[in-house]
Amino acid sequence: MGKISLNTGYCKSCGLCIRACTRGALSISGKTNEKGYRVIAADDMKCVGCGLCYTVCPDYVFTIEDQTGSEWTV
Ligand code: SF4
Ligand code: SF4
Prior knowledge:
Layout: E1 3-6, H1 16-20, E2 26-32, E3 38-42, H2 52-56, E4 62-65
The structure holds iron/sulfur cluster (2 copies).
One iron/sulfur cluster binds next to helix 1.
């Protein structure tokens, strides 16, 4: 299983990653970042580390790590 980390300070609540995630692991949370956007939250139990969110996010919110803990790159 993959691991995902988020820098929600960059999130603009556009929803692209939610539509891209085939696992239903992403949702808009109740938290707001310093830019005033409601930010993304990830469910680590559903996430498989496929990287689709990383690919579609225009604001570099996501970092995907592999099972060894190394940063995932494309
Ligand atoms: S890595 Fe894949 S499964 Fe995990 S949140 Fe992103 S799109 Fe969804
Ligand atoms: S695609 Fe990026 S900016 Fe858009 S909601 Fe998802 S994390 Fe936020």
